[in-house]
Amino acid sequence: MKRKTMTDRQQQIYNTICDFYEKNLYPPSYRDIAAIYDMTPKGAHDHVTAMKSKGWILDCGHIVPADTVISFDDYEIEQVDGMQND
Hints:
The protein is an alpha+beta fold. The protein has a single domain, classed as Winged helix-like DNA-binding domain superfamily/Winged helix DNA-binding domain (Arc Repressor Mutant, subunit A), CATH 1.10.10. It has helices spanning 8-24, 30-37, 41-53; strands spanning 2-3, 57-59, 63-65, 68-71, 76-79, 84-85. Strands 1-6 form a two-stranded parallel ribbon. A two-stranded antiparallel sheet has the order 2-3. The protein is globular. The relative contact order is 0.22. Residues 69-86 have low confidence and may be disordered.
């Protein structure tokens, strides 16, 4: 599956989302992202929306990286290999 290239800022935010998710086992809120990057929650929402349209974030009601598989039974997070950036 090929995904569209992210901007540098989107890549920074994506890395933050992945790190937050791995440490906390739940996704960051738009307010969390906004606070980290000194932007408004709307700005964070706009970046996440752009990453969803590019295929990097799942559109499932939560901010979840598209290459993450979550097992709620044992709370494991697994990175899925083979995802490509074009």
